[in-house]
Amino acid sequence: MEREFAGAAGGVAASGAVARPAGGSREPSSGKKGLKALEFVMNAIFFVCGIIAVAFVLLISIYLVISGLPAIQEIGLVDFIFGTRWYASTGDFGIFAIILTSFAGTAGAIIIGVPIGLMTAIFLSKVAPPKFAAVVHTAVELLAGIPSVVYGLVGMILLVPAIRVAFDLPSGATLLAAIIVLAVMILPSIVSVSETALRAVPREYEEASLALGATHIETVFRVSVPAARSGIATAVVLGIGRAIGEAMAIIMVAGNVANMPGLLTPVRFLTTAIASEMSYASVGSLHRNALFSIGLVLFLFIMLINVFLNVFIKRKKED
Fold it and tell me: Is CATH 1.10.3720.10 correct for 95-318?
């Protein structure tokens, strides 16, 4: 009897032992179903957000094309793009001088801002002591939070008079003042994105370079910077977008005159032409449509710059 009772007890224990895993396996399966449902919902949200972003770009593109093409058709594409006179009172709408000014101002800001921003990012991520780097990083973030109008106000009060006195000019509101203000404005974007890209470089790359006998500075410029090339290029793209799309600060320091670009002459950018004249251009007039055409040209330029830089980055990666 004792043996039978022990055998029965063992059978019950064995059946219980077998039953527990079966019952416990139901909880992970239900948990997996919950995770799959959550993943499906998040994927759907991301997909919808992506579609909304693309839809906004398409709507802006369509609106600019519909609003800008009538003026180009009436003025003529060649006269509009390559004309050098912009006088709404006489019906002259040529934006060649304005286009050259925008390119000159953006190129000057990039030439000044990119080396300074990149060197600052290298210093913060690879050279500076952590405490000092934290202080400088905070200052860069504060610089990024300053509104554009404040940059223009400081430039108008301090920079414009300084240029007028230094070069003995009737007015210091020139292309040079615009370039300096734009160079300062694009620094936060370049420093922040470049620093993030440099910090993301795997430590093993640098350790291998140091093990081969390279110095720390050689490792930074020959290993870390090339490895972070994609992020640095992204920083340059953001800087170009900020420079070519700025309006308010440029109105205050560039003089807002549609002249051919000269370093010490008052000039007008594509963005400032729109911002300064849209308020008094009558609805439905050729003047207002021409301003929309400027917006279309500016939009196309930004798209071409982005496409060119993306293709350049992809080719570099493949090489």
Answer: yes
